[in-house]
Amino acid sequence: MNRYEKIRESIVAGSFYSNDPYVLRLQIEDFLKNAKNHNLKDIKAIICPHAGYIYSGQVAAFSYKQIEDKKYDSIIIISPSHSEYFDFISVYDGDAYNTPFGKINIDKERSRLLADYDKNIKFSEHGHYNEHSVEVQLPFLQYIYKDFRFIPVVIGAQNKKNIECIGKAVGDIFANQNILIIASTDLSHYHQYGEALALDKEVEKLVSEFDIDNLENEFLKNNIEMCGGGPVIAAMMAAKKMGANKAVILKYQNSGDVSGEKQAVVGYLSAAIFTEKTSRLSDNPGEKSRNENESENTADENDLTSMELNDSRKKLLLEIARKSLVSSVLKTNVSYPDVSDSVLNEKCGAFVTLSISGNLRGCIGNIRASAPLWETVRKMAREAALSDPRFYPVSKNEIDDIEIEISVLSPFILINDTSQIEVGRHGLFIKKGFHQGLLLPQVAADYNWDTVEFLGQTCRKAGLPELCWKEKNCEIYIFSATVFSEEQFGR
Question: 0.70 exceeded by the pTM?
Fold first, then answer.
């Protein structure tokens, strides 16, 4: 060890986790063996608890299990400050952290990029030397990766200014890099078991719905409890800018489940935030539809065939979408090609998806056949570029990198018999009261769902119980989709 290195030594080895490397390795190995791998492909961030391993280690293992087979160029751990107050974001100014497994070097180059981004992000010791919530993540990472570099970040005051500052900084700087973000948090503290479950369920709901705005609002109003709420919100904001569009809860339990003491418990959650394949358009949270009060179009089953979209028509629609994207972002007027083709003037629903290097950058659709197809594509391209609530508006520097994909929807058909559903061919739209959800045909095929699972998942997308499709007042519609992209036809 270089005697001039500034090393942050472990402060909770021997209390939060074993200080014996052999015992610690066996403990982590056992945790990971008992955790389920969900086979998620493009994980941008994970949420992990930071209590003693005897209480939260198994929950944390569910997050780390998802990244066992993945490689990252660097890792950012964002944590709260439990014992020290400061109104800025502290990036550790030393050379390494140390645990019983050995030294982990700081990624100084990327740390500098963060500290240079905003005056509210500073190189500092504050929040590091007496804080456990970064440290307890490190043995898991050392077990999985052996040698890696990381950036320890501690948010002092968890206010709107600091949360959004670090979320934007990480997202802007590392948007196109292979970086993992770890948000360190526990949930509710010292409530009776049943009350804790109810409080923590609200957090689970907002995280799983990828509802960053409401999660932030509820946290800042103290309506939900997370000691690391700021890190969670910031990580989700950054992950969204990096292309993430979905979150999944991996495991929840509280200290009462471990100790049996139910009078004053602490809640623990693990979750993954990832990018769903762009072909699974409607499986992405936050997709919007227009004219939702209009009645659905119905047709005979024979009408549920792909519209006569030959290659020349597909190319023309892609050209219109590209022109709309460019004019919307640059705020310029463009001349669109004359569209006299009768097929392209048929009223039809469609989605437009924007992606960069395979990562979702925007997806908006109109599921109603309320306008000519070419006009729907033009409008949805603009909306996807500027108005997808999951992303910041597309910038002029991104235009050339964006690939466009269009999904043209057939008319919706109300069915009374679920045996009419052909998995792989049909998409589903389920409506009950004010709730509605849509999944495109390729989603069920991608996940190898059967009809019952497809129905249940569409109900969940609508915010309804999985078996709501069995209820008489639940409307089930089927449709098909024709999907094509610039990747197929060029620009």
Answer: no
